[in-house]
Amino acid sequence: MVLNALRHLRADRQARAGLAHLTADRPRRPADGELLLESVGLTKSYAGADGELPVLSGIDLQIRAGEVVALLGKSGSGKSTLLRCLAGLVPASSGRVAYRGSPLTGANPGTAMVFQTFALLPWLTVQQNVELGLEAKGVPAAERTDAARQAIDLIGLDGFESAYPKELSGGMRQRVGFARALVVEPDVLMMDEPFSALDVLTAENLRGELMELWESGQFPTRAIVLVTHNIEEAVLMADRIVVLGARPYGTIREVFEVGLERPRDRNSPAFEDLIDRVYRTMTGRQKEGRVPGRHEALELEKRTPANTPLPPASVDGLSGLAEMVLDRGGRCDLADLADELGLEVDDLLPQVDALDLLGFTTLSGDDLLLTDTGTAFAGADVQESKKIFAEAVQHAPLVTLITKSLRNNSGGTRRAGFFRDLLAHHFTDEQVTRQLETATDWGRYAELYSYDAEPQEYHLDENDDTRLAVTAAGQG
Amino acid sequence: MSIRTDNKPAETVERTPLVARLPGRLSQFSWVDAAVAAAVLVILYVVLRVGHGTTVAFNTHQNVRVDTDPTQLPYDAARSLLRMFAALTLSIAFTFCYAYAAAKSRRLERILIPTLDILQSVPVLGFLTVAVTGFIALFPGSMLGLECASIFAIFTSQAWNMTFGFYSSLTSLPRELDELSRSFGFTRWMRFWKVEVPAGMIGLVWNGMMSFGGGWFFLVASEAISVNNQQYALPGVGSYAGAAIADGDLGKVGWAILTMAVMVIGVNFLFWRPLTAWAEKFKNEQSEASEVQRSFVLDFLRRSHWPRLLGRVLRPAGRALSTAGRVFGRDDRPLVVDRTRQRTGDIVFTAVAGGLILWGLIDLGHYLYDRTGLGVFGEPLLLGLATLARVVVLVALATVVWVPIGVKIGFSPRLTRIAQPVVQVLASFPANFLFPLAVWFFLRTGVSINIGGTLLMALGAQWYILFNTIAGAMAIPSDLREAMDDLGVSGWQRWRRLIIPGIFPSYVTGGITASGGAWNASIVSEVVTFGGTTLTATGLGAYIAKATESGDYPHLIAGVAVMSLYVVGLNRLLWRRLYRLAEARYSL
């Protein structure tokens, strides 16, 4: 596949020359380093229960001609929202976004978007899909047919012009997405997790081809903004990596300049070192010398549902991970483990965060280390593990909040709306839903409380033994 | 429709220019192409010939006498069909405009959507009087007025449903398609025809088909009608049957029923099946579906070269329209909104709209007060209870009879294949066509119309319950059934644990439609005539029918208003709750 595509690439040099000719009557092609896109003090918030809930705050970002910028963050860090603010699809709450110095009033005229889910119109052929942007600009039919065909050739879709999207594989569909964006020759190509809906091999192949094209100097756009949650992808592709943090809310946590030569060698020490540094920033563990045990106790009291949201990990998922670590002797390198499972490191992050929150594991460097309770939890049978979990879950503030308020309420029943309102002060609707789902899962497993989906009510679990144990743990 | 020629089914992107291709193409013309061309010519001829009859001069005082010679039936059928399709075209145009306005304007939405909700519940037949008198005044001395009134009646039975469907597809457009459209700077015209209409196409076609099926009923009801103590009749199958009934000639009634059946099945086969099969291409799913709608007619059309040729001829027109459509501007949303201006606009809009509504209400109140006093609402409210009882009994009976049968059919793929098209046709077959037979039966057996009326209402309404039960039973995954077999769950336990919860959402949909249809049907089934004998039941339907016939507007308004109230009340108090329960609890 790769070879094939490269052959395409070479054969299409002429085609590209043709594409460049189309650019002739467009505004001057910006020189390297020229400021294309800028956000100053960008804040974005959504309506919550009492006022606005920020998802992005104080973002200062500049995109210059000739660079590839990756916006990296976990889910909920606001990276996709930031991309949409830059593209003029979502209004900023405050601050400003400017394209070539003039503030945006609507959709950004200098950008084109590549979507995670491809967003192809299934009722149009590949050719018609690629022509859409030109048609919108009012380019005459004959001209846009030519331009679309050249873009199709450039991106390696030759021969697929009359196919409908549903006849294509995922990789081919995303190529259509690329061709459609490139054909309008935007100054900045916006990519929203373009490879995450593809399988590993296809994604790898497509990334490689895209970077090859970018390096060849014939790329029809002058800058790329890439949203991703995949650290390796960011280090592989970007000149600059902007890491967004989820806590307290979307701020730029750190910016890494990637000085590595292209094509980049994954096995080079510099590459691996950068991945480690980015990884530590993302997991919020860059502070050296933290001794988990001593700070935990203090931290535990300070934990509230607001500052310690529950990671979206099911009990099955997190105990599965714990068991795997136990199988590897209670300690293992996360990246290796992810590799073995055919996952990206960041796919495991919610589970790792959950184990950490519950005090089952600690992270030392890049290694995941089972604690004593963690070892006991991973090795226990179902009934035993439920007991251990019920103890540990006291570290999850939302779960304790629910248990306590159920106990304080005569009848031991509360509407989910009650907790929803409490959380709504700190999180968006979607986040609240996700957190309550996790809290429900954890609480049910720990037999602390049950949840009725129909009246949407939490009930204190009638099992007296557990309740006593919880009371003791909660007050002790 | 010509605008969408870019999306014609068999169209593929051709690289060679038209000139180079044509000679080769022409020599390949086969008998398929010849057949399609002939069919198109015949349709054109019939439309012209039949359409001519709609403008015939007509005098309100002349005695309308319908020719009941059976050889007249093909012409009558064509006239009826023309009416149906005119109404459908009108409904589509209305759907596009109304749904688009409601979806795009925050302010209009607040008025248009509740209005639509009410319109959906108003008994269409109650409007007929107003429509007939209005349109006759509009086209004095021409048949066109009556024609319009009939088309309007069919339109009111089709449009609301389609509009609601399209509105919800507009407002629930997938986020990425909206972003695609704005990010690439589509014009509003492009967004509508390339994104929004295709995205809503499947719903539009299916809703259109269902509404069209329901429209036959109103066609029959509106072709021969007495309003204001004046008899009106339009040439058509409905009026033919009406005349045959008046003569008490069962043989001719039989001919009419046969013609009706041929029409319903024919339109299904030649028009809706191909259309639903064609609409498959608008499915927004990324893989080939396992089960696809197929149509022999569509396959036939696709085998001919006409669609491709037509597409190529019409494409320049489509492009010209697309260029012209640029005047509607770009599809974009301003990032900055002036809050105070928006607020002021809202207040002005609310004040004007509220004022107009209030003024209308006061005027209506005066009108009713001057003629009859506001006590006019008392009688229909009481009579409504009788009709309500009929509706409840009907739904309960239809449930007891058809749910077990529907489940049986739905569980067997073989039975489903046979039964589903049959039920579809039965559901669209206008029940009021069969009323004379039923009345003849009542007269012979001495069944009271007060009880028989329920049966008449059920003739049309019951199919929706059967139809949806089959669909619900089909949707129950077979592994669930196997699991139940495996666990030995059978009998009542099986019904309680698997079947009832499984079919519940579909059943509720069927129940809503059946009960709405039954209210509407009560207007024509509580007063029935056969060969000079008129049977009248006690009920709101009979009340409205009587007011219509004598042109008694105050009573008509009161009756229609009260019936709408009953329908809305029943929907709000019962069906909508069940619907929410079904969505929350029993969706598979």
From TrEMBL, chain B:
Keyword Protein biosynthesis assigned: no
Presence of keyword RNA-binding: no
Cellular compartments per GO CC: plasma membrane
Predominant location: membrane
Record localization: Cell membrane; Membrane
Source domain of life: Bacteria
Residue ranges of the TM segments: 29-48, 81-101, 122-139, 151-174, 195-219, 253-272, 347-369, 381-405, 425-443, 455-477, 498-519, 556-575
A Pfam family reported for this protein in Swiss-Prot or TrEMBL: BPD_transp_1
PROSITE patterns linked: ABC_TM1
InterPro entries registered for this protein in UniProt: MetI-like, MetI-like_sf
Record's keyword terms, sorted: Membrane, Transmembrane, Transmembrane helix, Transport
Annotated ranges, domain ABC transmembrane type-1: 77-271, 388-574
Membrane topology of the entry: Multi-pass membrane protein
Any Gene Ontology biological process: transmembrane transport
Family: Belongs to the binding-protein-dependent transport system permease family.
Name the record gives this protein: Sulfonate ABC transporter permease
Source species of the chain: Streptomyces yokosukanensis
Highest classification ranks of the organism: Bacteria, Bacillati, Actinomycetota, Actinomycetes, Kitasatosporales
